[in-house]
Write a structure and sequence with these properties.
This protein is α+β, with helices and mostly antiparallel strands. The chain has two domains: 180 residues, Class II aldolase/adducin N-terminal domain (L-fuculose-1-phosphate Aldolase, 3-Layer(aba) Sandwich); 140 residues, no CATH class. 42% of the residues lie in helices and 13% in strands. A hairpin with a 3-residue loop joins strand 9 and strand 10. Helix 4 crosses helix 13 and helix 11 crosses helix 13. The radius of gyration is 20 Å and the shape is globular. The structure holds zinc ion. Zinc ion (ZN) binds next to loops. Zinc ion binds next to loops.
Amino acid sequence: MREPGDLHALREMSARVGRNMLLVQGAGGNSSVKDDDVLWVKASGTWLSDANDKDIFVPVLLPAAREALADDDERIPLARPGPLRASIETSLHALLPHRVVLHVHAVNTIAWAARRDSRDAFAERLAGLAWRHLDYVHPGLPLARAVNEIVARETVDVLILGNHGLVVGAETCDQAEALVHDVETRLALPVRAMPAADEAALRRLCAGTDYRLPGDAECHGIATDPYSRAIATGGSLYPDHVVFLGPGLPTVDGREGLTTMLARAEANGLPAPVAALVPGLGAIIRKDASPGAEAMLSCLALVTSRLPLSAEISYLSGAHEQLLLNWDAERYRQQLTASRP
Ligand SMILES: [Zn+2]
């Protein structure tokens, strides 16, 4: 199959965006380019940051992608047989009229999109852009259907996805990337300074357990800052958090608290929590946590430190969390991420 000339530009741009933790964390985000009736879209479970080193884009026929949306079919066949699956958001990429579509989990956008009191701020800060804000919708087909309704009525270049992230459409890769940066600059929030962690105390707590300190020291702020901690333990802010870390985050108080947390999980037939917050000391993560889970803990630190004390937080419902946890497409994505070298 002939590869379009701007697939190279898509790889370059995707790798750049994927390496920026403020825009994409782990296997999150996706991008695409349309070439006649072929859509080149990121494969599910691959990382945008790998775009220059691995073949992360797969071709699908646009008519097939649009048909799948009409038929409520989550699996879109590849136009060239291969081992990968097209991104969960392929229908969304297919239905937007723009040549290039870029979806990111940009932390300033997410911080605003996880609030109930953000409507006026969006109107003020995004003035002049062709933008729309959607309430939270389950990713994949339900999200694509909701966007389809908007696109049928008007031309939109910027979509703020409630409790999720940002989608932009443009004619070129450069324009799409610039638009993401423009939106993030407009929505930029001050970052709250976090009290220092006590890594020595955390190491003593983890000694002899299945837990360790996270790779990114910034993650401790979620536990040392009382306000970030309250937000993080209150529920789940966006889908990838649930998929990679489970709903919300538990707190543990000392060794006894850790034992109690593990006993409770076992009694409920649940796996040991991937990560936990030790109030005042810092965050801990399971020794076998995937790079995707590590990235999601970093994301939570970046988002919660940008949520002001006055924010009215909007959480995913228990029903939404369950849908994410029991979603076959997400299990596949997690497996791929876990096996990423
Ligand atoms: Zn997403």
